Structure of Phosphate-specific transport system accessory protein PhoU:
Amino acid sequence: MAEHTVKAFDEDITRLRGLIAEMGGLAETALQDALEAMARGDETLAEKVIAGDKKIDALESEVDKLAVRIIALRAPMADDLREVIAALKIAGVVERIGDYSKNIARRIGQIEDRKRFEPLTLLPAMGELAGEMVHDVLTAYAARDPDLALEVIEADNKVDAFFDSIFRNLVSHMMENPATISSAAQLLFVARNIERIGDHATNVAEMVHFAATGVYPPDHDD
Amino acid sequence: MAEHTVKAFDEDITRLRGLIAEMGGLAETALQDALEAMARGDETLAEKVIAGDKKIDALESEVDKLAVRIIALRAPMADDLREVIAALKIAGVVERIGDYSKNIARRIGQIEDRKRFEPLTLLPAMGELAGEMVHDVLTAYAARDPDLALEVIEADNKVDAFFDSIFRNLVSHMMENPATISSAAQLLFVARNIERIGDHATNVAEMVHFAATGVYPPDHDD
């Protein structure tokens, strides 16, 4: 590439990374807010999470447009092209992470008698772990850090273990207190949404590893 | 676009769709083979699934390259561009669906005494349902059929219900037969992998709906 093209390309890539970072930040906040709203039964905060998802969707479109512009105008090669492709795919996955937080927020009005559920103390911890995965994978993307991406992939096992423990807890709870089955089922969906956030962060981590090194990481067990 | 460019673009898009269809076909077969290998304890078939995943990965790279070429050379607009972007993102998700089947195949050697597990009769049915979702979502993509994409999104609820039932069954099994906990845990991972295949097919369905209509479908509950 000619020097001015290199400079223009670098500026474009910096903007692309900025958009992904912004999307990721919003997805992280959405998850935190959704879990806080659930812990407090705060439906106003839940509404905020639901409304805020539109901004994440809009950012995905912006990433798509900019990535296309970069490919069409700058004709990047090798590493640079890999990074642009990764950005497109990562945006698609982060958008979906936002959806899960919105799904959690939607269930808040349907959980009654929240003090009776032990998982309500486990869910925030599980959510925090998944939130850290989202945070770390975006840091790994920004820093092109394949080792941090591998750590995110490892962390998914912990989120899965939380899910198993919460699931078992809720199932025994339902058996012992049939009257609470409907609320317990809502919490089950919340746990599953958090588990899927972890899974999607893992998916992003694979793409970050690929963008940084040109190879996908060895498969983890999940 | 000039007429010859339109023709060249149509040929490129047809090839792109062909590659996605091929990836999807391989991912579907991988899932069927992994489940059959599990049902029969057939480690040779499991090895075939594991080895075959490389072909899916290679096809993803081909999709990436062709999509980039189309954007750079043909400068597609609006609907056409949306389809190319969707192809890139869908390839990323189908690759991950392939990974889950490989993960299932890897566990087959670790399940002992398979006749004792009732879920071994439920897992193939759950897997078949997830396989149908993968099949249908690729048909929806090929036919640009947003209604079929919505049906796939609906079907995910059934896969989730299977997962819940298998999970509960395995947990009681573990409690009653502590000696089988390790094999039961392997089956739990298999069920989870199938659940995730359903979730990723849903993700593809959203992208298909977007490519066909320009809007993402209303969020489903999951």
